[in-house]
Amino acid sequence: MRYNTIINKWSILTEQCHKTFICLVSLVVMFFSAGCDDFLDVAPSSSVSIPTFIEDYENMLYPFYLKYNANPILAVMGDDVYWSKSFYNSWSGNEQFRRAYLWSDEIYDQTMSNTHWNQQYGMIYTFNKIVDEVRNVPNEAMGNLLVIEAEARAYRALTYFNLVSVYAKPYALANENDPGIPVIQKNDVTETKRERTPVREVYNFIISDLDSAIKYLPPHPTKASRYQAAGLNVIGLKAKVLYHMNEYGRALTELENFFELLATTTSRFNYSYALFNYENATPSPYDPSGLPSVYNPVADVEDVMINEYMFDPTKGSLYPGGIAVLASNHLMSLFPADGDRRKELMLSKTGTDADEPDRVIKEGHYSNTGISIPDIYLMIAECYARSNRTTEALKYLNELRENRLTPATYTELSSSDSQVILRWVLEERIKEFVATGHRWLDMRRLWNDPVGSALIEKTRTFDGKTYTLTENRLTVRIPEYVMEFNPGNRTMTLKQGGGVFLFKKE
DSSP labels for 270-296? Predict the structure, then answer.
């Protein structure tokens, strides 16, 4: 009873606080029903419970705060998908998706909402509050409080990583002072000027938060009732951040630590952290794919730090409405003629585009670029290949492939050429993470990579016109309405530079 009361009352309070916070950090009121000015005149009701006990702060960490993992437009920006004209036309009311698919300069105009931006900074508000306040809880062991703070830091790092991976230049392409995203550590409602933190400083802050979190978290999850950050998955997140910084040596160290820590436990509740053998998929009338349910991050065997599902096998297309999103020619060319169970389970043999059968991507929900066991396996395989440790690279690559191909068609890959192995790994990533947003992040990361760049399809033809992906378009511009609603806009002007919108003092 007390738990439900706390959650309900806290949700009311945080919604009000989020309104103020979002307005003050260049977010917008579109995500919320009331305007900022109105809220500023309203004092919190005495009936609203302020978090007091450690349980209150812990409850603020429930999975809602990891729900919105990645911007949904990422799923359509990768070269692994293809849109039919009928599908494109059906999305006339979602112009940002249509622009994203065509790699437009401007994805969000003045009238378009960006739920992803709003949600991410709303979550940051909550994490900041926990970090700022939880140590002050009375009559509680400091060790317990530090664990809650560490979780909040881990989730804050993940959230900033989700933002900087979209709205700033890729780390490898950014100069020291290229603008990233606003890094906000304190919920200061008097602050009206939020400038963009340089890209490298954003990544340094993310790594710092993760290092702080790892110090106090238990090595493995200890709670079966909710998703929980622990040393294991935070190490995995740190590895992924370093990986997308092209810091492959440092990433490899963390990935080796991940597997070393993974081997030290015999009980992780429902967290199995294991590859799922696709040969064991058991189709049913409700679930024709037979893949593990990923609605519950605690129960999914391959999840490490994500809270979204990739496919809904009961549907016939990537998005609602029954209109097909297709696997691109680029993706299809990577699958063997038969034997790869991903092709069978992820791609439907039916759809509204009957002239292009066997390549309809089954429906997903939001983009999901969180950490999974397949991601861990392919990251460590790539890092080993880049370190010229071919034996280790092949070990992890082949183990994943063995769980994806039918026994009759699986053959072990073998080579002493690290560049050949690297290409195999990168091709495997394209096939493994269909329409999830992973491919877009990899395209950003590999833009100038000698092997990876050759695998990027930098043009797409639609309705008789060819569209070309350029380096500037690897960065999604911060929505114009965000800039417009920035309370500091009287002392800042909107300037365009380096493919992104910049905050610039007058």
Answer: B-------GGG----SS-SS-PPP-SS
Q: Identify which has the larger pLDDT, 337 or 383.
A: 383
CB neighbour list of residue 409: distance below 8 Å, 6 or more residues apart = 336, 338, 339, 340
For 41, phi then psi, to 5°, come to -95, 0
Helix (H, G, I), strand (E, B) or coil at 188: coil
| C-beta separation of 287 from 315 below 8 A | no
**Per-residue exposure over 455-466, b if at least 16 CB sit within 10 Å of its own CB, e if not:** bbeeebeeeeee
HSE value, Cβ hemisphere, 13 Å, CA-based, for 23: 19
User: The pTM is what?
Assistant: 0.84
pLDDT, tens digit, 9 for 90 and up, residues 57-66? 988 887 554 5
DSSP 504: E
Structural domains of the chain ordered from first start: 2-71+114-217+482-505 (1.25.40.890), 77-100+273-454 (1.25.40.900)
Residue whose token pair is 């965000």: 482
CA distance 266 to 469: 47
Length of the chain: 506
| Residue range 194-252, pLDDT digits in tens | 788 999 999 999 999 999 999 999 998 877 666 778 899 899 999 999 999 999 999 99
Residue 362 has pLDDT above 80, yes or no: no
Residues 107 and 99: beta-carbon distance below 8 Å = yes
| Pairwise CA distance, residues 65 & 68, whole Å | 7
